[in-house]
Design goal:
The protein is 53% helix and 17% strand. The chain has helices at residues 10-19, 29-35, 39-49, 63-74, 88-99, 112-120, 130-135, 140-154, 168-177, 186-191, 196-212, and strands at residues 2-6, 24-26, 54-57, 80-85, 104-109, 125-128, 159-162, 181-184. The chain has an 8-stranded parallel barrel with strand order 1-2-3-4-5-6-7-8, surrounded by 6 helices. The chain starts with a strand and ends in a 5-residue tail after the last helix. Bound molecules: SN-glycerol-3-phosphate. SN-glycerol-3-phosphate (G3P) is lined by residues 6, 26, 28, 129, 131-132, 163-164, 166, 183. Residues 6, 26, 28, 129, 131-132, 163-164, 166, 183 line the site of SN-glycerol-3-phosphate.
């Protein structure tokens, strides 16, 4: 499973990249607003950190303008992936850009039928939002499973990019049901490394080692 970082935090992206846990980055207009930075400038900076896809979202509502914005965003760097909303216009823009060889990420997906349409339109990635479904007491993971089945039934190559990952159980469950990619905030990815028994075991090992008076080097 690929790990994308759902953030515009340069330090966190760099740290995760250096550890080996950043295969790409996703952003959205809310993440850019939160960063307080210039959109194109921050995307350019992120694209220089990772060779993986960096999703940058269009903000137009009609297909022609989305395509124009998408082409413009692609000029920032070769690894920019154009993020489009799952609307009729977003799907149309996805078809046009996909035919031009532009990588696309169709976002705000909340149903298996939406995901089926995105695959038909040649999306590189489909982004189902797990956490936002769970917020409504719906089953985000069931959606990932349904999309997996549909894509496998027909050999669609669109990658399932599980988004709106809020906790480490979401991450584990996405891996279990076969999401191709998950995008999570840095905090969640770092939390995946933690376990109370790891900390407890390590501190016992260190204490016992100290008692031997030896050194490794
Ligand atoms: O990639 C989409 C993701 O950022 C949405 O997450 O937590 O705002 O639902 P959230």
């Amino acid at each position: 499973m690929k790990f994308f970082v759902d953030s515009a935090d340069i330090d966190a992206i760099t740290e995760l990249h250096d550890i080996g846990l950043c295969d790409g980055v996703t952003t959205n207009p809310s993440i850019i607003a939160k960063s307080g930075r210039d959109f194109k400038e921050v995307i350019k900076e992120i694209c220089a950190i990772t060779p993986g896809h960096v999703s940058a979202e269009v903000v137009a509502m009609d297909a022609a303008k989305m395509v124009e914005e998408g082409r413009h965003l692609r000029k920032i760097a070769d690894n920019v992936c154009v993020k489009l909303p799952l609307t009729k216009d977003g799907l149309k823009a996805c078809s046009i850009l996909s035919r031009e060889g532009v990588p696309t990420n169709v976002t705000l997906c909340f149903s298996a039928n939406q995901a089926l349409l995105a695959a038909k339109c040649g999306a590189t990635y489909i982004s189902p939002f797990i956490g936002r479904l769970d917020d409504l007491a719906l089953d985000g993971m069931e959606l990932i499973q349904d999309i997996r089945t549909i894509y496998d039934n027909y050999g669609f190559e669109t990658e399932i990019l599980a988004a709106s990952i809020r906790n480490i159980n979401h991450a584990k469950d996405c891996a279990l049901v076969g999401a191709d990619v998950m995008t999570a905030p840095p905090k969640v990815i770092f939390q995946m490394a933690g376990h109370a028994l790891t900390d407890k075991g390590l501190s016992a090992f260190m204490k016992d080692w100290e008692s031997t008076g030896q050194s490794v080097i």
